[in-house]
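Run log // design_07
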């Protein structure tokens, strides 16, 4: 298995010292700006043929100062890691907006620049606190696990090679622009996530700068991925061939429902854990108590308060995380390959449920 060179970053050591705080959602903060279509377009895209209001990534070009302000607010609220505003900034992600592929590199670079400026401003006030930029990579609106034609079960809106090529363009842009972490997030179709990881590994293999990789999946109340319908263990089996820094769940669920799924993830994953629990409908004090229960019950290393509506949600989490309880590495080898009594080796296939082969 390939290993990352983390010698240039203190991040892997830091997450073993304390729980790190990932910023909250970018989308809800942008909504609070109340920008109309004309404002989103700016002068540069005034005559564009498609509405751009639902493509917030473009604000990195038309209103970069507003994106920087959002990053700065999260940093001042206590975030250790901020995500770039690039959730849809891949060639396939931009197809529905009919934007040229040439903009992919420009948007991603501008997004990283917005995040870096916020870190520089925050560092002037508290220079001794490490801060990191994670390059956000979304799942796009195209999926490979389900048919898009009720009359043709084999019909897909995209292919694995197309997704790999699209992701690789975004990965190259983000890494060359200077992100500290790559974060393929909110995966609903595990095949899309595997295509992204394939693209990342290909970029590394071709000489690109290696950075840590975190991933997050989207699960329903029953603990299955939204589109591909995999159980938590099957999802982990599908992606842990790649050397991940963390694996986690995104904000589709609140902390009460998420807790049992985080516990399951802790049992079956050999990677460090990330949770992105939804605090949208919870008052700050109540949200703090609910997430505190998760922190104390599981080996979490990075936490995110997703879909927050104001920064009052983030500060109570910072207070909780200041507990800085000691942690040990998660040691669960039973998911990938391990020896079982006798002369057999068990391997796990990633179907809807984990399928074990004894060879």
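design_07 sequence
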């Amino acid at each position: 298995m390939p290993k990352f060179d983390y010698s240039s970053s203190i991040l892997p050591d830091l997450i073993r010292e304390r729980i790190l705080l990932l910023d909250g959602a970018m989308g809800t903060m942008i909504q609070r700006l109340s920008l109309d279509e004309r404002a989103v377009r700016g002068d540069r895209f005034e005559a564009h043929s498609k509405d751009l209001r639902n493509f917030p990534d473009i604000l990195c070009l038309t209103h970069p100062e507003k994106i920087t302000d959002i990053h700065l607010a999260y940093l001042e609220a206590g975030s250790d890691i901020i995500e770039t505003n690039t959730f849809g900034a891949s060639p396939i992600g931009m197809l529905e907006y009919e934007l040229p592929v040439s903009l992919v590199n420009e948007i991603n670079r501008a997004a990283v620049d917005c995040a870096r400026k916020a870190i520089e401003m925050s560092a002037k006030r508290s220079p001794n606190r490490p801060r990191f930029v994670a390059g956000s990579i979304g799942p796009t609106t195209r999926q490979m696990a389900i048919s898009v034609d009720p009359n043709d079960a084999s019909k897909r809106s995209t292919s694995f090679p197309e997704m790999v090529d699209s992701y690789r363009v975004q990965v190259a842009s983000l890494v060359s622009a200077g992100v500290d972490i790559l974060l393929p997030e909110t995966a609903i179709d595990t095949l899309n996530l595997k295509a992204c990881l394939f693209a990342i590994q290909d970029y590394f293999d071709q000489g690109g700068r290696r950075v840590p990789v975190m991933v997050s999946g989207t699960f329903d109340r029953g603990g299955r991925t939204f589109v591909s319908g995999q159980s938590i263990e099957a999802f982990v089996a599908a992606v842990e061939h790649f050397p991940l820094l963390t694996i986690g769940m995104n904000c589709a669920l609140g902390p009460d429902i998420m807790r049992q799924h985080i516990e399951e993830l802790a049992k079956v994953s050999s990677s460090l854990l990330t949770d992105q629990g939804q605090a949208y409908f919870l008052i700050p004090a109540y949200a703090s108590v609910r997430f505190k229960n998760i922190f104390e019950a599981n080996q979490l290393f990075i936490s995110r308060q997703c879909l927050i509506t104001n920064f009052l949600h983030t500060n109570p989490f910072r207070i909780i995380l200041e507990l800085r309880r000691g942690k040990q590495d998660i040691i669960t080898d039973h998911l990938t390959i391990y020896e079982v009594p006798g002369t057999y080796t068990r391997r796990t296939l990633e179907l809807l449920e984990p399928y074990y082969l004894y060879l």
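The CA atoms of residues 76 and 122 lie 7 Å apart.
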